[in-house]
Amino acid sequence: TFMKIVCIGDSITFGYGVQSNENWINILNDKLNITFINRGLNGDTSSGMLFRSYEDIIKLKPNGVIIMGGTNDFLMNYAYNKTLENITYISKEVMNYNIKVYIGIQPPTYPEVAKTFWDPYVNYEEVNIKIHNYRKNIIQFCKNKGIKFFDFFTLFNEHKNEWDSLYVDGIHPSAKGHKLISEEIIFSRL
Description:
By secondary structure, the chain is an alpha/beta fold. Helices cover 51% and strands 15% of the residues. The chain has helices at residues 11-14, 24-31, 46-51, 53-56, 71-75, 80-95, 111-117, 124-145, 152-158, 163-166, 175-188; strands at residues 3-9, 34-40, 64-68, 100-105, 148-151. The two termini are 13 Å apart. The relative contact order is 0.17.
């Protein structure tokens, strides 16, 4: 069966910092017999994703959508429950159109490195705590709704000894990081 999956998110979905062929979505396009459409937008927040969800998901009539975002919300110091609200709203909205929802839980930030590349005044440890809290709640939502999720937060934490090679700048995955993300999706099956 022909499948089309939209991937909506921020720069981690867009593939900031890596060549386009190294992005996790393009790796999946090469490996699986599914068409993946990249609707990642650098710097986007969960509110921005909600705002464009009709144009970027529903109008494209995909079979499924992978929704991953929230890191920018937390970098801007938004409360994680607002992010949770936005992502769950997008999920419920697209489910009304019989589009299968998959949730991606974003990787943590790598605080020591992020401080040198990005704003040194951001508390990246605090950002990771918000991702952790968001993760717990979004997993609960997924379990209640029977939604499959990909937990890149845990995946990257399990590979903490490789963080120097998994990030380009402490926030965005390197080519190796994108490969890890793609393998997790292939391994857990869509």
